[in-house]
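Page 42, continued from yesterday. The earlier attempt failed because a stray header line got pasted into the input along with the sequence. Redoing it now with the clean sequence only.
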Amino acid sequence: MDRSTGYSPLNDTEVSTEIAVSSAAASAEPKDDEPTLVLIFGWNMAPMPALRKYGDAYRQLYPRTAQVIIQPDALRFWKFQGARERTLLPVVRMLEDIGLLSGATHQNPPRILIHVMSNGGLLCLSDIANMLRRRKIQSPPGTKCALIFDSAPAPTTLTYAIRASMASLTGGLLQTLLGGTLIYVLYFFTYLARALARRPTLVTREMVAVNDPAFLPWTSLATPRIYLYSTADVVVPFQSVEGHAADARRVGFPVRTVNFETSAHVSHARDYPEKYWGAVRELWSEAVGVHGGDTGAGDRADVSSVEVRIASSTAAPTLAPSEALISASVSSYGDGFVLQHSRRNGACILGFPAETLLIVGPDGGISKHIDYGQAVSSVSITHEGLLVTDD
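This time it went through. Structure tokens are written below.
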């Protein structure tokens, strides 16, 4: 570990993404209302010293919390998915080592705070999400999670992509001009190729994916999120951020937004530190239950059935015993309910693009959890309500 910064490099392969780790002291177990891990995904070409300032701020807020800082490399947007994912393998291995990629029960379930900066940070997070999804990872029961989007997301148009890359360039005038010319050429041909192939940009795809409740093993419809942005941002338009926040609300996520009005791209923490970190604290309080909020793992209740009225015009499917659930839970969040379940055949209901069913209802006060592998006699979804009955 570098004693001057408190961070040590995580990379154990020759990759261009820089990853730094700050581990809390072994004797300093985080309190129940503190994250056990903060994952910071920096903006594209962000200097690591700048990202460590965010880590330092988190160290002030949560001194017992471990941190991982990921710095996207300059060419990330032009790499194939496999090459991008290889740069993040050390992070996945670390998550596995500390027990975040196992469905095993923990005495103190993990609490994960994810901080994403700009589209570059979103792409890094999405690459990790894709790797975990292919491995069909299950999170430990009771895991808490919250998402922070700083200056993100927005569709990567040619104009805004060039502005973002130019803003990250450092050096003299000649170096900036040469770098800017190269960036323009690369982006131009990338966008031309995607337009001819009628393929959406990477960020456009990930903007849709991050609104999937099962985007990460630790997220569900009850996972709170916050968008930190500014009207003055010339790289990521505020209209795009507000539009994505509105989409997330329609899906059913608990969403907060803070418009800093005058700060530049990824400069909100620098210009308004008290307001910025106050918003972060409030979000995390919601995630750990001060204002409600549960990742969907569910609290156990000594009841044999749960009934929840739902607001849905969808047809009323029924799961028969032959389609026994792998897992299911009903947990309260806000003034509603979330039902989450996985089925062995991987089918989904109500159009959610994952092996997860989530239904929000207007009632509250009851939680029901069905253990992994536990059979149920039926799960019925009707316009009047939801009924889960044990064998």
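Notes: Residues 305-390 form one domain.
Reminder to self: strip header lines before submitting.
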